[in-house]
């Protein structure tokens, strides 16, 4: 295979939580695939760091098996490539270390000796209460070089105060430009394409405002439950787990003003303005503008599944939401009067994420009622599965008989159009870390503005006692979510 965008930066990527779930399912398989595609420089090492003792051979065997499962190959690359794995394994190292104990960083210090001039990316895939202590140890041990980066996984706190504490702690060791806060949704192809669609085409931007757009819907539906992650999730809930980060980032990209360049701060400045313009939802209007749900037993994709409180690792009672729907207003000229309806949930009928921009109905119809309803145009951006863009419009049905208006779509499937394989979001983001491109990472002020808005909703829920409504696994959430949008005379988009 020929070299693609081989990057020239030699690097050391040090993954804390190097045997954890994220490293096994996402990070190591993504790095393996990048290497398989020859996108990594020859001089690039990956040092997994974790508390437990483990022989290197056992670690390599474990990661091999994870890569077989999570990066199994595809039609373009063929099956899992053992030779590529062998080459990749040469980059992998394992160091056992207790992240809270500076003395136990000895082996890491030794491993990094003499490589102060290469890119050094510390990837913290650990619990967030370790972010501050790890950053402090790295600094006190002299491991933070000018070429260092600190990558932080979510959850970045559980509210504004805890997020600020984490940010302050890491800022004592790493500068803001060295700090990369991951939101893996920003690495998804369609999400990046949203900016291209808006800002590289003349067609949409003139229509992208309150004069022409009726409303926007953003749905991130998952079929999985929270089994296996119950303890984390029960502290978090859908609002913190999905809305604070992924969904608000999608709102930002859909609603932001065009940046004048693709400079990371230009983009982040524009996103920040959207976050600051989100109309606060608090105690007065949480009941009208938000819906919480929690799944009960049901059937998803033909399989019977337990309810949230019956998951094997669950507690007996909980008021944590596994579904949330919110009607968001954005207080600026472009979006005044244009609601953004967002919803996300576990154990919904299908894994499907999309942004739907619904335009206004034409102001006048010359067609008789017998021609059919004038449905408004919709632009549907599918994030997953089958990434693509669909423009729904009306056309005349064929034939010489009575004129009938038919809803039809211009449908662009990225798979069919571009062929190849859609890269995993982490592949893109890990390369960006190594290349030093922070545009797809959250800046501190964005993170804090998002928490501020979210905290107010949570306070509203607490003060009004708004608890989650039950919904059957395999349904689209509680009926109240349907009522939320229908109150405004609208409906959730269904694929036609
Ligand atoms: C994570 C959440 O950030 O995103 C998970 O913690 C969720 O609860 C996941 O399942 C969804 O990501 P994706 O890429 O599968 O849509």
Give the strand order, joined by hyphens, for the main sheet: 18-17-16-15-9-14-13-10-19
Mean pLDDT rating: 95
Q: How large is the share of residues in beta strands?
A: 15-25%
- Per CATH, the architecture of the largest domain is 2-Layer Sandwich
Write out the CATH superfamily name of the largest domain.
Dihydrodipicolinate Reductase, domain 2
Number of helices: 14
Number of structural domains:
2
Find the CATH topology of the largest domain.
Answer: Dihydrodipicolinate Reductase, domain 2
Query: What separation lies between the terminal Cα atoms?
Result: 41 Å
Number of strands: 19
Q: Compute the CA-based radius of gyration.
A: 24 Å
Bound molecules: 6-O-phosphono-beta-D-glucopyranose
Q: Brief overview, please?
A:
With 496 residues, the chain is α/β, with parallel strands linked by helices. The chain is built from 14 helices and 19 strands. Helix content is 34%, strand content 22%.
């Amino acid at each position: 295979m020929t070299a693609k965008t081989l990057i020239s930066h030699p690097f050391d990527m040090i993954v804390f939580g190097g045997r954890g779930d994220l490293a096994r399912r996402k990070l190591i398989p993504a790095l393996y695939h990048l290497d398989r595609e020859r996108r990594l420089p020859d001089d690039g090492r990956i040092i997994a760091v974790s508390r437990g003792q483990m022989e290197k051979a056992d670690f390599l065997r474990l990661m091999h098996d994870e890569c077989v499962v999570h990066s199994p190959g595809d039609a373009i690359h063929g099956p899992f490539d053992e030779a590529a794995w062998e080459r990749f394994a040469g980059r992998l190292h394992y160091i056992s270390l207790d992240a809270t104990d500076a003395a136990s960083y000895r082996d890491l210090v030794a491993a990094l000796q003499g490589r102060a001039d290469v890119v050094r990316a510390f990837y913290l895939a650990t619990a967030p209460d370790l972010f501050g202590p790890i950053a402090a140890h790295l600094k006190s041990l002299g491991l933070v070089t000018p070429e260092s980066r600190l990558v932080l996984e979510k959850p970045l706190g559980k509210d504004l105060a805890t997020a600020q504490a984490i940010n302050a702690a890491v800022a004592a060791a790493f500068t803001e430009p060295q700090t990369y806060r991951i939101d893996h949704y920003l690495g998804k192809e369609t999400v990046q394409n949203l900016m291209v669609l808006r800002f590289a085409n003349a067609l949409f931007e003139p229509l992208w405002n309150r004069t022409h757009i009726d409303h926007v819907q953003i749905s991130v539906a998952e079929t999985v439950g929270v089994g296996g992650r119950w303890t984390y999730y029960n502290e978090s809930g859908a609002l913190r787990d999905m809305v604070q980060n992924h969904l608000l980032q999608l709102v930002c990209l859909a609603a932001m003003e065009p940046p004048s360049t693709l400079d990371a701060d230009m983009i982040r400045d524009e996103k920040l303005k959207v976050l600051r313009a989100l109309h606060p939802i608090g105690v007065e209007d949480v009941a009208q503008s938000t819906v919480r749900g929690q799944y009960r037993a049901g059937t998803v994709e033909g399989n019977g599944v337990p309810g949230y409180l019956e998951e094997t690792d669950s507690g007996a009672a909980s008021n944590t939401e596994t579904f949330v729907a919110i009607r968001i207003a954005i207080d600026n000229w472009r979006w005044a009067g244009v609601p953004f309806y967002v919803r996300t949930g576990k154990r919904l009928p299908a894994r499907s994420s999309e942004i739907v921009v619904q335009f206004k109905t034409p102001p006048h119809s010359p067609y008789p009622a017998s021609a059919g309803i004038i449905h408004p145009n919709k632009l549907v951006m599918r994030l997953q599965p089958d990434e693509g863009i669909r423009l729904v419009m009306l056309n005349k049905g064929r034939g010489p008989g009575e004129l009938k208006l038919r809803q039809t779509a211009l449908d662009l499937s990225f798979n069919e159009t571009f062929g190849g394989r859609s890269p995993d979001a982490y592949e893109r983001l890990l390369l960006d870390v190594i290349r030093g491109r922070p545009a797809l990472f959250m800046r501190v002020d964005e993170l804090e503005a998002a928490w501020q808005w979210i905290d107010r909703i949570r306070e509203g829920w607490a003060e009004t006692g708004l608890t989650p409504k039950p919904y059957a696994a395999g349904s689209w959430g509680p009926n109240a979510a349907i009522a939320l949008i229908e109150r405004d005379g609208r409906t959730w988009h269904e694929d036609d």
